């Protein structure tokens, strides 16, 4: 099936078909092989990319920067104190200015409405580098890592343990529904994902005929049983630091440690984390540094999947 992502935004994975997601993963693999062979490209030659960051970043900033330069483009970092976004100038006006100067815009910040308004008014492709609700570029990196490990996504059991309402749980659930995975959230009932999103993801799976299974459980050991991959994230996201003590008490049973990994019952299971990790909280050091950990493969894959996303939407293909 022919896939054309020219001019497309990446705000969440809701708007991409399974074929389009797989196309991005295949393109990521090809671009990764190209980089490892030492081949510099020109697929973004003459392209200027605005990188808007309200929140600090290691992987997202470096991935967008290196990916753009690798293919001959120019990235311009715009921190929260560098431009007037949301201060003296509303989002719509900023979007219209940047859209006349840049070929694509990345946004990493708080409100999903901001990235959606950038897409609405800029006239150029906009990519969500993280908001409080969704983190689609991370999911692409996660899926590339899983695909490299197991050769497929379909039928893979991916279990997320921790805060079941955060942007990673939301985004993984959407992606898993599209790609025919068995996705389980293991979380306290008070941190279960929104019922509406769970229902939407189950409908996505049905509409796509992907065969995906979506479950939400409050028993962490029951959740991880038979998992191919176990995923976690920080217990208090950026902006929620004041809730850390409360979350630590609530989420301690969901810590990824040797005991929880032993409950999987599958020898080849892997551990994933979007990073940065607070070791000793959501994951223990002996799991993070174990042979089952793929967190740094996953981190590297941010660059390859982000490169594929930009190339597919604004590249010289």
UniProtKB/TrEMBL annotation:
Coiled coil: none
Keywords: Cytoplasm, Transferase
EC nos: 2.1.3.3
InterPro entries from the UniProt entry: Asp/Orn_carbamoyltranf_P-bd, Asp/Orn_carbamoylTrfase, Asp/Orn_carbamoylTrfase_sf, Asp_carbamoyltransf_Asp/Orn-bd, Orn/put_carbamltrans, OTCase_ArgI
Location, primary (coarse class): cytoplasm
Cellular component GO terms held in the UniProt record: cytoplasm
Amino-acid positions noted as binding carbamoyl phosphate in the UniProt annotation, renumbered to this chain: 57-60, 84, 108, 135-138, 274-275, 302
Residue ranges of every copy of the Aspartate/ornithine carbamoyltransferase carbamoyl-P binding domain listed in the record: 8-148
Protein's organism: Aminomonas paucivorans DSM 12260
Domain Aspartate/ornithine carbamoyltransferase Asp/Orn-binding: 154-311
Subcellular location: Cytoplasm
Lineage: Bacteria, Thermotogati, Synergistota, Synergistia, Synergistales
Major enzyme class: transferase
GO BP of this protein: citrulline biosynthetic process; L-arginine biosynthetic process via ornithine
Pfam families xref list: OTCace, OTCace_N
Binding annotation for L-ornithine: 167, 233, 237-238
Spans traversing the lipid bilayer: none
Family named by the database record: Belongs to the aspartate/ornithine carbamoyltransferase superfamily. OTCase family.
Record-given protein name: Ornithine carbamoyltransferase
An example molecular function term from Gene Ontology annotations: ornithine carbamoyltransferase activity
Catalytic activity annotation: carbamoyl phosphate + L-ornithine = L-citrulline + phosphate + H(+)
């Amino acid at each position: 099936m022919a896939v054309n992502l020219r001019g497309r935004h990446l705000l969440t994975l809701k708007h991409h078909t399974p074929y389009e997601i797989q196309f991005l993963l295949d393109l990521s693999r090809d671009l990764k092989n190209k980089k490892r062979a030492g081949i510099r490209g020109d697929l973004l030659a003459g392209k200027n990319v605005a990188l808007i960051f309200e929140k600090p970043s290691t992987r997202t900033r470096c991935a967008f920067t290196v990916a753009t330069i690798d293919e001959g483009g120019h990235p311009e970092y715009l921190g929260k104190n560098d431009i007037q976004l949301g201060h003296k100038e509303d989002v719509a006006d900023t979007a219209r200015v940047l859209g006349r100067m840049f070929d694509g815009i990345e946004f990493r910040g708080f409100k999903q409405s901001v990235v959606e308004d950038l897409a609405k008014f800029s006239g150029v492709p906009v990519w969500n580098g993280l908001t409080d609700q969704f983190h689609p570029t991370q999911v692409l990196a996660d899926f590339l890592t899983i695909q490299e490990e197991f050769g497929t996504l379909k039928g893979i059991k991916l279990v997320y343990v921790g805060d079941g309402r955060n942007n990673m749980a939301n985004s993984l659930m959407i992606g898993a529904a599209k790609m025919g995975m068995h996705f389980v959230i293991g979380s306290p009932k008070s941190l279960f994902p929104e019922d509406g999103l769970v229902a939407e993801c189950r409908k996505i799976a049905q509409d796509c005929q992907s065969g995906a299974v979506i479950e939400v459980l409050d028993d962490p050991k029951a959740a991880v049983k038979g998992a191919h991959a176990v995923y976690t994230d920080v217990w208090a996201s950026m902006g929620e630091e004041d809730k850390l003590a409360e979350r630590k008490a609530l989420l301690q049973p969901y810590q990824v440690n040797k005991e929880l990994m032993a409950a999987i019952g599958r020898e080849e299971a892997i551990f994933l984390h979007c990073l940065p990790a607070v070791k000793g909280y959501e994951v223990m050091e002996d799991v993070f540094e174990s042979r089952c950990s793929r967190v740094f493969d996953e981190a590297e894959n941010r660059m390859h999947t982000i490169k594929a996303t930009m190339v597919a939407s604004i590249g010289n293909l």
